[in-house]
Amino acid sequence: MKEQLYTIPVMDAYKEDCECPVCSMYKSLENKAIDFTMGPSYMEDDIRAVTDEVGFCNNHIKMLYKNQNRLGLALMLKTHMDKTITDLEKLSASEKVVSTSLFRKKSEAKGVPTYIQTLNHSCFVCNRIEDTYKRYLVTIFYLYKKEAEFRDLFHNSKGLCTTHYADLYQMAPEQLNGEMLQNFMKDLNQIYLENMKRVRDDLDWFIDKFDYRYANEPWKNSQDALPRTIQKTNSVDVE
Question: What is the sign, positive or negative, of the torsion defined by CA atoms of 195, 162, 159, 171?
Fold first, then answer.
């Protein structure tokens, strides 16, 4: 099969021996985004303006902290804090907050809570990943529609985590139609449910192995059942 450039990451992920190829793709994008954020780019004015504005989510701030460039992270967080302080000083000074009671409408102080809520749900790294991640998902549908080799890889994969199963389930009617859509949904549901049951059964045996009655029984495929379960249920690679 002749691959186009944008198909390569998707094909490579589906050729891996993993519980969720989409997790593998996302992790690769995430690592590249972290490296970009902590590279020389953090000194560029246009990048710094965005990180000052949106900050980082809880997950990615932990990943950034583990990076060796502590000075770079400190500089970004310092100017992000400068902007947050300035913005909230202006908002809090301009808002009038009054007490509430059973007979009085609640305060209309929307500025500060809305600002903080927006800040808590924004992240420079997430935003950098999102567009490419969506293109990868679209590529899955493109390959499924065009390439028999990929359909075989898809059908014979170890399934997906619940989050990425939902992403593909929701996008399918937008990307496929007719018989191709029905075939995709059948394959998608089958590989997800069969492999969830496979990992669930491995986890069940892992639990049984802590019972003295099964102490001398073989572990079968259950020794790594717990991290594989976490991958399936939470899209997290703990190993």
Answer: positive
